[in-house]
Amino acid sequence: MPNSVLLLDVYPENIKLQVQIPLKEMEFAVPFDVSDTSQLTSGNKALTNYLSQHIGITGKRQLPWAMHLDRILVKNTTQNGTGEFFELIAEYTAVPADHNTRQFTLYYDAVIHQVNSHRALVSIRQDWENGIIDNQGTEIGTVGYNLDTQKATPLNVDLRKGSNWRGFISMVKLGTQHISEGTDHLMFLLVLLLCAPLTYFNGKWILSSDLKSSLLKILKITISFTIGHSLTLILASLEIINFPVKTIEIIIALSILVTAVHVIKPVFPNRENIIALVFGLIHGLAFSTVLSELHLSAYRLLISLLGFNIGIEAMQFLIIILLIPWLLIISRYKIYGVLKNGLAVLAGFSALAWTKERFSGQENFISRYLNAFTENSILFVLFLFLLTMVVFLGSQIKGRGKSLR
Questions:
Q1: Global pTM?
Q2: Looking at residue 37, what is its pLDDT?
């Protein structure tokens, strides 16, 4: 049977507590009907009274914390081995009486007081100063029925004192993770870099005259994208500007489409840095949603902005290091035109699939394959490396054959 789940977001002033209770277990424990899920709201006095009697927190001196109910909702969910089921989600803001959110005792016996086999898994979902920022949660204990005392055993929580350094490092890791798992961001950067070894002449792409100009172009593109996304990341995280997430996600998909068209037929010839700057502003707005969801204080937000941005830049630099050498080498051969246009077409179709998905809110089979691509993106680097080696070695063998004749 499914367990209850308690997720804690720890802040200096309070703790956000999310309680997830499976309804099919809850119906055995409560003295009221839970079959009509439309009635399970914060306006249901019987429900809110039941929860308040079975959920609580006290501090070091056994002083009870103030428990403010924020909202109640019902959601369809799945746990490993249990299949799909409905669960009640109650969200609280717990304010300590002793101003200490690092040490407390959690009391919970909802369902457990009647269904003795029931368990509640307790996890920390966010503790910035200890570097915990995980939507799935880091488990810290279990609340269950004690046969000796014949009641649920409270969970004593003692969180170690963290530091700004741990929080900073966690944000660097979050920045690298956000780029490495962001298929659309990776694809935009890849497509933009396809133009790096080329230059515009007489209405079409031609090979750049020298390596220096190609490297300079890469540098301009990278710096422009960095300036763009850093600017809006800061402004949006500080809530100076604000745009709907759905709109931003759609524009990001369209930015890939525009860039893909530009790779095939120059739209903004020799102005790739301008494209990177403009669309970098849009990508930065998407980055900012990650930080805004953490609800950090102003000081911690500034530290997080720095760490998150460093993580993004580090991952971008790694991507460039992995891709550019092979792109620069293979661009010297005719096959690069086929490779460039093929990747651009693939990116264009991907952008259209993302646009459709983000308009409709429904996943399609193309976007599912794209998510799988992100998980195996190292295979693309390996493919590019092997293709470059085959083309390079093939040209060397062919050249030697000609010299022998």
A1: 0.81
A2: 87
